[in-house]
Design a protein that fits this description.
seven-stranded mixed beta sheet; Beta Polymerase, domain 2; Methane Monooxygenase Hydroxylase, Chain G, domain 1; 52% helix; 7 strands; alpha+beta
């Protein structure tokens, strides 16, 4: 392998290049940005909503855990301001704003950065909804960035509203784990929906539904996206399991191991479903080829029967003057009988060879 040397001047230019912060995403965002802060301990949970980024503040201390939930990353100024106030690097701010970003984890001296893909099924639209979730973990502080208004964290918010709940008794590291675990649990719901789609496709294939190929293509595309979104989470959770940072207790690391097991199950399920969808596509093509062969068999049968008949008719259609059979009294009847016998003989031969079994 040829190693390329770095150009010192170019490296210096890149290092000092200001970060270009811009929202990257296909979706048209119209909702307002929501900033909600939850400061909690065993006894209490204070919820604050910030309507103006200038009013935003966070008090980090050893007695409380802070969760800042930002919903709507399309406003770059809001995202930038919050991240800069807590000391997030410009590269990670870019990652938060880029919804095309691959799931990843970065461990810095002051914080841990993780970005994930949350996926859910929209029953009314009959489609999967994809959303990027980014997390910042510092001592006593968790910041979550999500794209759309949703209830993905509804369970956590309900737990925090209960006095002396299990979640309230834990540190920021445990809250960080719970958010990741919620995203992973959502994949199981998506997997169940995919299983339902696969069952419907199997039934349609059994009924020779030719329009099912569109569903097969759609499911194949969705499975590919799911694999790209879910597979990297294995590596993310592995890093968290092996971490030795004090922010994670041994109990939290143990829970991460359970999440890792869930990730492996989901990836195995996706791989299996991809193989099934590929087999559906092959089966569909096989059915198409079978139908084509049946049509060709019919055409071959008719062609084989009519070729000798056409030959006979062609001979007596040449209108030569000296053709004795033309004056034969029963010539027409004889030719018709001969043609019928030839056709029946060819059909019987095909039948005997079982070449017509697929047609009939």
């Amino acid at each position: 392998m040829i190693m390329k040397t770095k150009n010192p001047k170019k490296s210096k230019e890149i290092k000092h290049k200001p970060w270009k912060l811009a929202y990257v995403g296909d979706e048209k965002i119209s909702h307002d940005v929501s900033i909600v802060s939850r400061t909690y301990n065993k006894e209490s949970c204070e919820v604050r909503t910030f309507s103006n980024i200038k009013d935003f503040s966070v008090d980090i201390n050893s007695e409380n855990t802070n969760w800042i939930d930002i919903n709507g990353i399309h406003d770059t100024e809001v995202t930038k301001s919050i991240c800069e106030k807590v000391g997030v690097h410009g590269v990670n701010i870019e990652d938060i704003l880029n919804t095309k970003q691959r799931p990843k984890i970065e461990s810095h001296n002051e914080y841990i950065f993780v970005t994930l893909k949350a996926i859910s099924y929209h029953s009314e639209k009959e489609t999967f909804v994809k959303e990027q979730i980014s997390l910042i973990l510092k001592e006593g502080l968790v910041i979550s960035f999500s794209q759309f208004p949703n209830d993905i964290f509804k369970r956590l918010k309900s737990e925090l509203s209960v006095e002396n709940s299990f979640l309230r008794q834990k540190s920021a590291g445990f809250l960080f784990y719970r958010i990741i675990d919620l995203v992973v649990d959502g994949y199981f719901n998506v997997g169940d929906q995919i299983d339902n789609e696969i069952t419907l496709i199997e039934v349609a294939l059994d009924n020779n539904d030719n329009e099912i190929i569109e569903d097969v293509y759609w499911l194949k595309k969705e499975l590919l996206y799911l694999k790209k979104a879910i597979y990297p989470i294995n590596d993310i959770v592995k890093v968290l399991v092996r971490t030795e940072r004090e922010i994670f207790t041994s109990e939290t690391v143990f829970y991460f191991k359970d999440t890792l097991d869930h990730c492996l199950q989901i990836n195995e399920s996706i791989s299996l479903n991809q193989e099934l969808v590929t087999s559906f596509y092959d089966l569909y093509l096989s059915n198409i080829n079978k139908k084509t062969n049946e049509v060709m068999m019919y055409l071959t049968l008719f062609s084989t029967i009519f070729i000798p008949l056409t030959y006979i008719v062609g001979i007596y259609g040449m209108n030569f003057k000296n053709m004795p059979e033309l004056d034969y009294r029963y010539g027409y009847a004889a030719i018709m009988i001969i043609q019928f016998v030839i056709g029946a003989a060819i059909y019987s031969y095909f039948k005997k060879k079982k070449w017509l079994s697929s047609v009939e």
